[in-house]
Amino acid sequence: MMSHEAPPRWRQHLARAAFEYAGLIAVLLGLLGGFEALIWFRSGRHFVTGDVLEMIAAQVPDSVIIAVGMTYVLILGGIDLSVGSVLALSSAVLGVMLSLSRIPLHALSLWTFAGAVAACLGVGMACGLANGFITVRWRLPSFIVTLGMLEMARGGAYLVSSSQTQYIGRAIEIVASTRLFGLPIPFVLALYIVIVGQFCLSRTVFGRYVVAIGTNEEAVRLSGIDPRPVKLAVFRLCGLLAAVAALLHTARLSSADPNAGTGYELQAIAAVVIGGTSLMGGRGSVVASFFGVLIIAVLGAGLVQLGAQEPTKRLITGGVIIAAVIADYYRRRMGKAERET
Amino acid sequence: MEPAEALLTLSGLSKAYAGPVLLDVSLDLRPGEVHALVGENGAGKTTLARIVAGLTRPDAGAMALGGQPYAPASKHDAERAGVRMVMQELNLIPNLSIAENLFLGRLPSRLGVVCNRRLRAQAREAMARVGLGGLPPDCPVRDLGVGQQQLVEIAAGLAGPCRVLILDEPTAALTEAETARLFGQIRRLAAQGAAILYISHRMEETLQIAGRITVLRDGRVVGTRVVGGAPSSREGIVDGRPSSRDPRRVDTPPTTGDTPPTGGVSMDEIIRLMVGRDLGAVHRPARAQTGAVALRVIGLSRGEAIRDVGFEVRQGELLGLAGLMGSGRTETLRAIFGADRPEAGQVFLGGSPRPARIRSPRDAVRQGIALVTEDRKQQGLLLPLPIRHNVTLARLEALAGPGGVLRGGEEEAVAQRLAQALGVQCRSVEQPVAELSGGNQQKVVMARWLYRDCRVLLLDEPTRGIDVGAKFAIYKLLSELAERGKAIVMASSDLLELLAVCDRIAVMSAGRLVATFHRGEWTQDKIMAAALSGYAASAAKAAV
Fold first, then answer.
1. Contact B361 A212 (CB under 8 A)
2. DSSP secondary structure string, A105-149?
3. What would the pLDDT profile of A323-336 be if each residue is shown by its tens digit?
4. N or C: which end of chain A has fewer CB within 10 A?
5. Is B207 within 8 Å of B263 (Cβ atoms)?
6. Whole-structure pTM value
7. Span B487-526, pLDDT tens digits
8. Does a structural domain hold residue A84?
9. How many domains does chain A have?
10. Which of A198, A201, A208 to mutate to test the interface with B (most CBs of B within 10 A)?
């Protein structure tokens, strides 16, 4: 029996979620509105058009998926700097396997395709596993371990591809161009991963352990839980998601570039931090990271429309990252004051 | 009256944190005297020392140094006035060299460039004084053993000009020879007219080095005694000239450890002063010990910290673990729990003839052992997370369906039920634990293990830093758990509390379990004497 005062559980959750993300959604809408006004004022054109939204939806999936993995690693109290390089390596493996088959592309068998995709995902997962294993086994800071992996995976990408961009063509374009519910498949996939990622984080034992370890690993250990397998799993997940992003990235460009993904790790960290996840671990949200990616993407698109050059773009993006962290500081302080009264 | 003579006078010092720590403490230090401060753990010795050294400000009271008002705002202030302290915990910077640690903050320099040659020379001199002359001054401190680090700490204290030197448990990690050398330095300083406040729980040492001993209990001064003279009631002191007070002290070395050169005051008397509290109505009849053995420990050893510790606990029994700080209680509990790997020893559970395989806390918990750690903030709680998360952490899988998905409603109900049962004062179980008081935080830790439902409960200082109300709630809970057949081992520095709640008390001293007392046969004096016995024995051995 539901009492009259208490709304159903899902509505409570929804209300809490809306409140939780209200700030980020407001920033996002503010940016869209601001750019719309500015661009209308300057050139009489619209900013918020189907084309622009379409472009953003096509661009963000790989960043979103990487940001999901990064969110987990940061909540755990670690960091993964290797995601960009792992993306390039996975992409190179995919590209080489598809072009090695030497079959006319229209006759490319489903099996070859599936094998190449599996290899691509496997390589990503293996890199993540190596990151996790080394970090856990020798109790090293993940910053250093994944910095090493950043170099190694990039080197691997050049080796595998002989430093050549592998053109793949139509076979893989299909992945990027097919639509589901009127949205490009990669975007739908990214949304799905965000939702599942958030659910696992807040509603499963695994997610609870991740947050707990990021908060106080020793307390978790002394509660009779071995933190090592959890940490291993998180790094493996991050590597796997980098490979999924590689798949979408390759599909979008119809080719595998060994230089792909340079700087993605910092972009992902920026997006996650804008979403309010703590670099110290123990606090964060996958959905918030998703909004973080969107904010960076809209900012970039808007500045391009305004005619800003790359240097200006980077100056402003950097400023937004710092402003986001400062805003988060005040938001938390207000929350604390509110709870204390 | 002696204020004309006193170098440092403390009058009416009080300090409270959660509860009162120091209450109206008055004390005077005379030039050239070694004044020992003794008392049980938590009696307020260290707090008093920190106030004198400028690390803590008193809530009330005043100090005077050489007749001038003295109110240091910082350690720096105190040092400028000539008051230096060697602290109990090591405060060295591991990656810096010995020399740099010794002269940190006053490195010899010219135009901002450190003058290494002068630094090294000064360091060698300071190191030679404490017997570290054999080490290169450039050696990083992290490469030193604990004893050597302690000597560096002492050397740093001795290195500057000093009128008052405070030593807080300086010998905890020192060998006999090192201690003897330290005493030589202390006497040299005293002979130069400095006043020394010496804090230690090693009674032998105190009686060897000190001219007067002041006993603190529950934050109050309960008495000051002159070593080798008459008890120093205020009017009893006629002349206090340090040089004439006790000439034997300097001349005659102690013959053996167990017969210290005391005239006026005995070790027994000091112990009586330390523990003599009114027990009131805490006595209760012992529970009938009919339960089966739940936990048996044999020959547990780990380095210097625990040596060949063995005991057993029955179902429904509450065993107390008494001992001084550093006697190995915490280490014993951690070793049983698998938090630290013991070097030797076996743990038997529930009467099983085969030793339990416990290599990690995870193994221990799976076999029904729980540990409530000494430091709940660092090792127990997830402070920023809600009470609900903290309570269910150790048994989340019981609340999970397929795929590890948590049943949120059930989890909330569990947390609410336990929080209510233990009387955790909170707005809701969603409140972060960081916002709770110490007592309520401890209840949350207890709730976690109640939910896990372990057969053996190990508790390390479960009532440290919590208010009286919460203490009694914890005692009541422990009694109920014992009634329900749990085996409980509780380590505590508060002897009164052990006397009140335990069925048996095992006493640890210097890493060994030296005595076990049943309810009815124990007295505070006996327990205190046992707690000190390990240190006396080691001193005697070294002297032979």
1. no
2. GGG--HHHHHHHHHHHHHHHHHHHHHHHHHHHHTT--HHHHHHHH
3. 888 888 887 777 66
4. N
5. no
6. 0.78
7. 999 999 888 889 888 999 999 998 999 999 998 888 888 9
8. yes
9. 1
10. A208
